[in-house]
Amino acid sequence: xxxxxxIPSRYASxxxxxKPLTDIAGKSMIQRVYxxxxxxxxxxxxxxxxxxxxxxxxxxSFGGKVIMTSDxxxxxxxxxxxxxxxxxxMADVVINxxxxxxxxxxxxxxxxxxxxxxxxxxxxxxxMKMKTTxxxxxxxxxxxxxNKDMEAIYFSRQAIPYMRGVEPEEWLxxxxxxxxxxxxxxxxxxxxxxxxxxxxxxxxxEGLEQLRWIENGYKIKVKFTEFESVAVDAPEDLKKLPKFx
Length: 245
Prior knowledge:
23% strand, 11 strands, alpha/beta
């Protein structure tokens, strides 16, 4: 099976313009993500997909592979779909690797790739056990509920499920909650189909594109991970990085 990693990367960002080129201890964020992804044993190749010439030039400068894409895409999923057809050879699976996680563990990539050992898998992602009440009630940390077949049945910015009759600060002591780890993988067939779907009501309500897929009947296979990584959404998040260095 030919599995490729694609790192969507754009220069424009409301909260953090130029984020991919931000220096982190001598290397840019996008270079660190690329180098970590290259360590994954499951990937045949890794590409950066961007709409900005500055990022394209920078990736080439450190020897990375890069594909220029449209500046009209609304999501990384859409950008991955355009990019996959510019990659030599026929990919079977695309792993969408977040460009703002400079210390992503290669093992996480291999974990999500392993979901496709089952030929029935269309889409896959990772979850991890929720450890703090702060994360549980943080709307910027999506939560996931699973069925018995290890498939995601809903994602929410709210803490789900609601623990009836239990004080909120005690919820973690009474139920195992899971948070979503933002890495996606798709068969090329599923990727083509989901990028043609119109935005759904649940997606618009929660601001989570994966709800569009669930609402249209797609199954999202899930694997557990114990590896922590940190996403840089805003400049102040750079303060979290020294411990990873």
